[in-house]
Specification:
- The chain contains 8 helices and 7 strands.
- By secondary structure, it is α/β, with parallel strands linked by helices.
- It binds nicotinamide-adenine-dinucleotide (NAD).
């Protein structure tokens, strides 16, 4: 018997990077991951990869900032499986610029994807979770939920905000046996990070190697990137918590960058 046998998890942004790894690992432990992503083609490829290993998986098109799309996606999952045990609110993007140059439209886009997306998916999933008197929500925070870096004003703001949302959901959800927690990774080599290495090098006027060594990994204990597997371990740990002892919390997974 595996930890997540028969359980259903909606994982946003699971067509790529960290979310994809969480979906693969959830399936490997008996669960059915729903790959909810803006990019349906890539989501379908991830679902096919999982099915190829003998597990069930479902790909759905979902823009997390579109309330109707979120509600439809959750309704479709309920119609097909009749349960939502876990929500991993993971979809995200990065835009780097100093505050003085940050376009207001980009600020709003960042807050929308990271915060509106978390709110809308949480709201939609809480209804079936409350009805079932069971559920676990994991938000993809960041070391930037607790620490700041130059060039990342809306990202740092939104990631700090997720901790507030998590704490409220933990309090409101407790009587329904619904838990909420945040995983806070350090830098992970995904497309999101690969894209920002040259962008940060340009903005800071340093080489790409210096961005990696002296910006991204400078404060780690060993100069190592965190891996998607490391993050999935933490997410599944929270997702599988069996009582309200573990709720309203946030855990940093970062090779020691930002010790609490
Ligand atoms: N990579 C890192 O170093 C790192 C560190 C800490 C936290 N995070 C967080 O992890 C999460 C995943 O990042 P990643 O590095 O795997 O990125 P990624 O770019 O590999 O994957 C992000 C996925 O989200 C999807 N997506 C983007 N906007 C969406 C939207 N509006 N609706 C639905 N899906 C959408 C993309 O299509 C993509 O599949 C993000 O929230 C990110 O902030 C990443």
């Amino acid at each position: 018997m595996s930890r997540f046998d028969g359980k259903v998890a909606i994982i946003t942004g699971a067509a790529s990077g960290i979310g994809k790894e969480i979906a693969l690992r959830f399936a490997a432990e008996g669960g059915i991951p729903v790959i909810a992503d803006l990019n349906l083609e890539a989501a379908t490829a991830t679902a096919s990869e999982i099915k190829g290993k003998g597990s069930d998986a479902l790909a759905i098109a979902m823009n997390v900032v579109d309330e109707d799309a979120v509600n439809k996606g959750v309704a479709d999952v309920m119609a097909k499986y009749g349960r939502i045990d876990v929500l991993v609110s993971n979809a995200g993007i990065q835009i780097v610029k100093p505050v003085v140059d940050f376009a207001f439209a980009d600020w709003k886009k960042m807050l929308a994807i990271h915060l509106d997306g978390a709110f809308l998916t949480t709201k939609a999933c809480l209804k079936p979770m409350y009805a079932a008197k069971s559920g676990s929500i994991v938000y993809m925070g960041s070391v930037h939920s607790k620490e700041a870096s130059k060039l990342k004003a809306p990202y740092v703001t939104a990631k700090h905000g997720l901790i507030g949302l998590c704490k409220v959901v933990a309090k409101e959800g407790a009587e329904f046996n619904v838990r909420a927690n945040v995983v806070c990774p350090g830098f992970v080599r995904t497309p999101l990070v690969d894209k920002q290495i040259p962008e940060q090098a340009k903005e800071l006027g340093i080489s790409e190697a210096d961005v990696i060594k002296n910006v991204m990994l400078k404060e780690t204990v060993d100069g190592q990137f965190t891996t998607t597997d490391d993050v999935a371990d933490a997410v599944l740990f929270f997702a599988g918590a069996r009582s309200n002892a573990l709720t309203g919390q946030s855990m940093v997974v970062s090779h020691g960058w930002f010790m609490q």
